[in-house]
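User: I'm preparing a small set of examples for a lab meeting where we compare how different chains pack in three dimensions. I only have the primary sequence for this one, and I'd like the structure in C-alpha cell form so I can line it up with the others. Please keep the answer compact; I'll paste it straight into my notes.
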Amino acid sequence: MTALQNSPLIRASSAWPVEQIRQFLHETEIPIRLGCVSGDGEPLVCSLWYWFDADAIWCATPKSARLAALLEQHPRCAFEVAGDLMPYRGVRGRGRVTLSPTEGAEILLRLIDRYLHSRDSAFARWLIDRQADELAIRIEPEWWTAWDFSARMNR
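Assistant: Understood. Below is the C-alpha cell output for the 155-residue chain.
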C-alpha cells in the first residue's frame, strides 16, 4: 500500500479527499516549499520544483547543495504546495526523504518538462548540461492535509 492510498495519513480536518489532493499536486505548477533542519538545528525552508507520482513527491538538487547534506543528515521534512494568490488553498504535510543519485538526471528532466514545457530554452539546456550532478529527493508523506478557503473568499 502506498502512502497516499493509506487513508489514515490524511488528517481528519482535510478539506479534500485523497483523489482531490492527488489531482491538485498533479495539476499545480508552482514550487513546493520544503522544510528541513539546518546544520545548527534551526528550521530552514527551500522552494523547489516538484513532480508528483502516485506515492511520492520528487524534487532534484545538485549533489553538492547544502540542502542535500542537510536532508542526508536529517531525512524528515515538512512540505507545502500552495499559491500566493486568492483563493488560498493547498496541501501540506510531513514526510521522510530518500536521496537517490542514480535517479537525479531522470527527475531533473521530468521537472524541466513539467515547469518549462520544453527542453529547447537556454535555461533548460543549461540544466540538462549539469544533470549528471543532480540528486533526486523522494518525499514519502507520513501525513498530509489540504485546506481550501475558496468558498469563504467568494462571499
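A couple of notes for your slides: The domain at 3-145 is CATH 2.30.110.10 (Pnp Oxidase; Chain A). Strands lie at 32-37, 43-48, 51-52, 57-62, 76-82, 89-100, 134-148.

User: Perfect, thanks.
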